[in-house]
Amino acid sequence: MTTRIARIIIAAGLGLGLYACSAPQVKIDIRNIAPAAPAPSDGLVAGAARVDITPPPGMPLAGYSKQSGAAEGFRTRLYARAIYIKPKTGKPIALVQCDLLSGSLILHHRVAELVAKETGVGADALMIAGTHTHSGPGGYFESNFYNRFAAAAPGFDRDYFDFLAGRIAAAIMEAHTTSAPAKVAAGTMDFTGFSRNRSIEAYRHNATVPEAKKNDIFAAVNPSLHVVRVDCRDELGRFVPRAAFSSYSIHATVIPNSNRLYNADVFAAVTREFERLARERLGAGEDFVHAAANGTHGDNSPNYRDARDFPEARRLGSALAARQFELFSALGAKLSDEAACRAIAREIDLATNRSIGGVSLASEPKVGNALLAGAPDGRTPVVGCLPFFAPGWPRWFFTGGEQGHKRIAAGPLQPIILPKEDFPHLLYLQLIQVGNTVLAPLPFEITTESGRRIAAQCASAFTGAAPVVVAPISVSNGYFGYVTTPEEYARQYYEGGHTLYGPNTQPFLAAHAADLARALINGAPSSLPTSWSFTLEGEPFVPKSGDAIVRRSPQGAPEFEQGARGIEASWRFRWIDAPPRAMAFDRPLVRIESSPDGKTWTPLAVAGTPMDDGGYDLSVRLVTKYAEGHLYEARWHNPARNGGQYRFVILPRTPGGEALRSAAFK
């Protein structure tokens, strides 16, 4: 096979395209700042904050690789949510959830550098977890491999990285600044019905799986929901709900790869509906925050109905939020200001340290043919059906090597196409204990049984200490692809083909998790470098604004479009405005106003929820660029039908600017 043919196979199979060797290099140096000593307090204190991280149109969507495309706008805004907790004695922690495909090691370290001195949160006590939406931007990962191949276009966008780091740091600082005396509680409950196992053929080969689960796709998932509840004292001296951190295993792929709008997929409703319930039923304030992370979702798909669309994502997410809220409510009776709160972390360079307790990883990461075939929710055309590429075509002979049953894409030529140094190799491992729950963030998409084994081995290290529940958190603090059990790996479905470091990845992680747990119990310090340096292939996806002075003007009156099969009914309004970079897409942009008589106008709320672009049903899209400006389109999906008059309001982009209002419509 020639190198050219190998390149075509890699590019076509992953749907990724190849990145020019002349891509500009971006070098980022980061220091591991010693955190400030925590201020003394009489007891536990906590705070929370939410910030908008929606980028302008133009960023490549990440998750479906080349099968997706560049974002044209947003349907649900992307947020970062931060929870700060400081125990009476000891160092504080920060739990951060982002509406992104995954966390990022370089992002984690930069945020820690920015907040350590002001908040006392060090790198070892900061967790940044992604929801794993496949409708967020790419271009912010720590490795050239995933900056090239995770998103629709290759490259590391320095501007968006800096924006992300600054916004997340601002959320942590706000959570710290607004912290107040608090009580916390943590708990777990099991339920199913929201996910199904998409690789049951690989799952059933696990020797440790009960027979009853081996053929039931709804039982062959992780049923455990983990919730941390935080209540803070208000100005009246009452303890009221302030924040929740949750983890549940559900793949965020309800929205298909044909989508071109940023959105949080099922997690948009998981977070928003939970927050609404907390306000309406428990008296939480408008600033209540629900940070929802992903558990061991690697081999599951969401249990969507026939359609994969925004209404289905909202239905499924709302139902899941209601179940999560049940546990949150029950935890009210267990709140305490003396709950354990501690963290530990270590970083391992897999280029030089690949063994623990007799378990060793492959010396070189490799992409398998099964990865090129794609996952069941996004099977690669043609390649996904080919023998030796399709799921369930492992290597049958010569399986004694480091990569076992994996069929290596492009064989011995892969290192020429995909250099070893471009793969992720700095592995960040961490444990954060809150109450009796130990969060185990990992930079992997963790399969169900892999997560169970890692959690069990980690929990076993707490023998003799207070019993704990270990909750592995996927796609946190970086991204390494997948981790499967050795048995699943041997079957070479998509998940096994994307387990880069070979069949021993899960045992390796489980051994480290247990070793880290023993270090946590013994009060050992974290083991992290004093600094980091990353060199990445850069690509600015959103052009600089240039001259942003553009006269806003409407382009006709709003128009109604009746929904057909798979399309929601909507009102549409178009207008001319400034370039995307000048539009500040991370700030509110559009709302709907209503009037009974066409004279007195007020912001519309439906069932108490403002009808603006912070919810589900207002989208904004860049249509095209005109000589006199850029053409944008706002849509009001699933509009109200109460006989009143309505209008779109495009909010000012600068302080003191004027809003643009559409003509009224009924």
Which of globular, elongated, flat, extended, rod-shaped describes the shape? Answer: globular
Beta fraction:
25-35%
How would you state the average pLDDT, rounded?
A: 93
Total of helices: 13
Radius of gyration: 24 Å
Please sum up the structure shown.
This protein is of the alpha+beta class and 666 residues long.
Write structural notes for this entry.
By secondary structure, the chain is of the alpha+beta class. The protein folds into two domains: 462 residues, no CATH class; 109 residues, Immunoglobulin-like, CATH 2.60.40.10. The strands form ten sheets. Strands 7-6-5-2-9-11-12-14 form an eight-stranded mixed sheet. Strands 4, 13, 25, 26, 27, 32 and 33 form a seven-stranded mixed sheet that branches. A four-stranded mixed sheet has the order 16-19-20-22, covered by helices on one side. Helix 6 crosses helix 7 and helix 10 runs parallel beside helix 13. The N terminus is likely disordered.
